[in-house]
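Consortium newsletter contribution from the modelling node. Members have asked for a concrete example of what our holo predictions look like. Here is one, prepared for the NAP complex that several groups have been discussing at recent meetings.
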Amino acid sequence: MASVVVHPETRIATERSLEGKVALITGGSRGIGRAIAMEFAQRGAFVAVNFKASQAAAEEVRQTIRGLGTECELFQEDISNRQRARKLIEDVTSCYGRIDILVNNAGITRDRSIRKMTDDEWSEVIDTNLNSVFYCTSAAVPYMIEQKFGRIVNIASFSGQAGNFGQANYAATKGGIIAMTKVLALELAKFNITANVVAPGFTETEMLAAIPADVMEQILSKIPLKRLARPEEIARAVAFLVCDGDYVTGQQLNVNGGIYM
Ligand SMILES: NC(=O)c1ccc[n+]([C@@H]2O[C@H](COP(=O)([O-])OP(=O)(O)OC[C@H]3O[C@@H](n4cnc5c(N)ncnc54)[C@H](OP(=O)(O)O)[C@@H]3O)[C@@H](O)[C@H]2O)c1
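And here is the predicted structure:
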């Protein structure tokens, strides 16, 4: 009979399983990014929170995380700009000396049907949601290779898997992120770097604030679980990939109430 080998590195996840790790969350000041920052902080990571403009919200995140007894710094950069995005990675690595976890979360919508969508609405979403992922990831990867450790989680959307009316720009970015993540997983596996996608469904954040009540009712009627996701539910999926997903790479984890299967 084959003997069972117990690998010493196999560990049981603990509350503080990210102790000593440095995690950067883009767009960490609000919504899903904020929830991810909190989840990582509770697990003991040093949390670097990027944001674009909402200083007060970012400051609240920093204070709350420090209240948990965890280190947190804010990094205000517009990551749709390649120089600013690369400066973000430089600043985080010179602040902490390393970067273990990168969550490419920042995103925007500029919804309009293809017949009415302007070039600016197209480009702004592509720059913010997709190009930023390339800028940040390509700048962070050399540090992760040097460390022989990295966890990359890219936040996509069911819209990039199934399509969604009025979101040609947004869906293109999210589908692009899914494809890019598979390539990252292939290229980086030999350096002990994993890359995965979390694809949320409709989630209770300010991103949905502009949706009229009647449209929201239609949306809810199409979700098998009949409710929106809470940001914390997305954050827990991200934490799973980072803390317990050592053998998971190139995958899409759908946290969407069943709206896309
Ligand atoms: N909410 C949903 O239903 C839903 C569903 C599927 C996927 N998602 C995805 O989940 C992610 C987070 O969405 P959310 O709902 O939490 O959005 P949100 O509440 O609107 O927050 C967006 C975050 O992204 C930051 N951000 C936007 N543009 C940026 C830029 N150019 N540079 C740096 N930071 C920037 C914002 O910073 P400021 O605070 O400074 O503006 C904010 O922290 C996005 O990728 C989104 O596409 C959301």
